[in-house]
């Protein structure tokens, strides 16, 4: 394609270069020659007269234009073949006309040689220019691609392609950046696979299928779709720095700071790991990529919206222990409330098991604002310190782009177990995932799974509203930006009645700053005693309703027996409407 275009540009360039030279030399128009078409018999004589040019390219335009390769001696003395031809064929022509043509072709020959030497081109583009010159002296418009006889793809075919692309379920927005208009589809298939499916569908529907290049054109031009792979993103800052040709001082400083934070964060985590003891827990938490249902090798599943199952994992460092909280999308969503509920359940369990007023816990996680880096989570920590036997909770945020942590290996063990299980048949219900997760680990402690029901989730946002928490000012009057926070620390004071909230904006900071914890309703600083009487309320009163598309897709899978009837009776009928 681009090669074709570059030839076109080259051709146009030669066109104009030649014309400039032509006009400079004030050579009479060769249009005269074209105004009088030559008889067939004569033109044969002429063609025989024309010597082949040494570039080996046959030149059909040469006949009748007066162009041929001449030696310097020849071209000064010998008239051009066309003028000779014309004087033969039109004996009634005046001699002045003949001599003018003769001088034209002689000059043309100079020009041919000039062009061949300076522009390094053969006769063909020159002859084309001459042939395309109109009476006004300009060259007629480029006609390539403008003949209007292009094959038009019918609107039905385009519609068919679009229907097929529209039928592919999009990845739900949590996993993709929300600021983008780009949609994502499951990376389990590529464009060629999609085209093959489209072709098969057209065949079974008895309709004409478009060619793959048309399908690709519609896919690329009319949509903004990416193939989603659950792999974690590479660090944008590191990549942009690596790719930047002009590394500005500002970019260099940002990159150096980023590298420093990354290194300090790693050190901090490995230091924390060595300090783990009975009453000091260090844990990472993260939500696994969604587990879809049904899951199997059936190709049609790709085009159906599936039931999503969430698995939130909390891995304890240096303890060989991992808690998994599993729920399906009819039980709960996967936002701040849900994540905070799981962490709350974990804290409650650990506080009661360890039963030590000096229990300290450090969490590590990524920076997802929708899940854990928000005031709802902070309020939950405050509440936990108020009502549980915990001395302090510290949350350290891993550096964006470098958030690899212990949960990744847990998730990978589970994914492998799922793959192994699929060999003996598809998965249909959340219970099956629960069993797989429980038995995924072959060595060490099995993962501890808590199956979450809608009634288990608590409304942390309501708690935040009640205590009217604000974390935006520090005790020195400065503004606290959530995005700058690297470490948050919630600690009970000596009297166990007041919780101090501290933060660092860099892993290189030696001292914490304190947040001026305020509420909207009164200027009085809240103490932990204020939260002690608070009762957490349930988040949901019933199961959630599936989207219409998901409901109808799952129903169609039951009707076509891709989901066996027994699973429909035992599970799906209770969630579909
Ligand atoms: Zn980076």
UniProtKB/TrEMBL annotation:
Compositionally biased spans, kind Low complexity: 82-109
According to the UniProt record, where is the region Disordered?
50-111
Q: Which residues form the DUF7869 domain?
A: 333-476
Q: Which InterPro entries match?
A: DUF7869
Q: Which PANTHER family match?
A: DNA-DIRECTED RNA POLYMERASES I, II, AND III SUBUNIT RPABC2 (PTHR10773), PTHR10773:SF19
Protein name per the record: (apollo) hypothetical protein
């Amino acid at each position: 394609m681009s090669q074709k275009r570059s030839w076109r540009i080259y051709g146009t360039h030669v066109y104009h270069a030649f014309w400039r030279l032509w006009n400079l030399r004030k050579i009479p128009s060769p249009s005269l020659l074209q105004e009088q078409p030559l008889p067939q018999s004569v033109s044969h004589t002429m063609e025989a007269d024309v010597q082949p040019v040494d570039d080996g390219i046959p030149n059909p335009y040469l006949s009748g234009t007066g162009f041929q390769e001449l030696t310097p001696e020849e071209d000064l003395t010998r008239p051009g073949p066309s003028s000779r031809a014309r004087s033969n064929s039109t004996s009634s022509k005046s001699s002045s006309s003949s001599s003018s043509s003769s001088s034209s072709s002689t000059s043309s020959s100079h020009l041919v040689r000039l062009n061949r030497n300076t522009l390094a081109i053969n006769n063909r583009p020159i002859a084309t220019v001459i042939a395309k010159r109109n009476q006004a002296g300009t060259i007629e418009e480029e006609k390539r691609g403008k003949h209007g006889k292009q094959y038009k793809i019918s609107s039905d075919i385009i519609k068919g392609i679009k229907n097929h692309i529209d039928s592919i379920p999009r990845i739900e927005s949590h996993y993709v950046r929300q600021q983008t208009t780009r949609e994502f589809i499951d990376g389990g298939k590529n464009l060629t696979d999609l085209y093959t499916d489209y072709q098969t569908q057209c065949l079974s529907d008895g309709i004409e299928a478009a060619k793959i290049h048309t399908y690709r054109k519609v896919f690329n031009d009319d949509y903004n779709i990416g193939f989603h792979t659950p792999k974690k993103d590479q660090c944008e800052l590191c990549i942009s720095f690596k790719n930047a040709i002009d590394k500005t001082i500002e970019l260099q400083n940002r990159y150096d700071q980023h590298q420093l934070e990354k290194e300090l964060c790693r050190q901090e985590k490995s230091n924390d790991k060595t300090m783990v003891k009975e009453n000091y827990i260090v844990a990472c938490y993260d939500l696994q990529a969604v587990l879809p249902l049904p899951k199997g090798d059936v190709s049609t599943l790709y085009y159906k919206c599936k039931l999503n199952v969430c698995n939130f994992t909390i891995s304890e460092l240096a303890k060989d222990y991992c808690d998994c909280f599993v729920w399906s999308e009819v039980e709960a969503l996967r936002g701040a409330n849900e994540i905070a509920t799981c962490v709350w359940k974990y804290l409650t369990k650990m506080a009661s098991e360890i039963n030590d007023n000096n229990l300290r816990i450090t969490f590590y996680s990524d920076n997802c604002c929708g899940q854990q880096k928000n005031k709802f989570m902070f309020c939950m920590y405050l509440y936990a310190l108020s009502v549980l036997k915990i001395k302090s909770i510290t949350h350290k945020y891993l550096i964006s782009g470098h958030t690899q942590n212990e949960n990744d290996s847990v998730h990978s063990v589970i994914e492998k177990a799922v793959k192994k299980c699929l060999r003996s048949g598809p998965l249909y219900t959340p219970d099956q995932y629960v069993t797989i997760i429980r038995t995924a680990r072959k060595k060490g402690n099995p993962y501890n799974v808590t199956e979450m029901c809608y009634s288990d989730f608590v409304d942390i946002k309501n708690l935040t509203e009640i205590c009217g928490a604000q974390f935006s000012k520090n005790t020195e009057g400065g503004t606290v930006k959530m995005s700058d926070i690297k470490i948050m620390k919630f600690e009970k004071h000596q009297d166990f009645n007041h919780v101090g909230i501290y933060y660092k904006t860099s892993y290189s900071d030696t001292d914490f700053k304190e947040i001026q914890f305020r509420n909207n309703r009164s200027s009085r600083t809240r103490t932990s005693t204020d939260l002690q009487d608070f009762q957490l309320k349930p988040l949901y009163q019933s199961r959630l309703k599936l989207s219409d598309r998901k409901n109808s897709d799952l129903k169609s899978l039951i009707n076509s027996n891709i989901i066996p009837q027994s699973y429909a009776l035992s599970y799906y009928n209770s969630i579909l409407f």
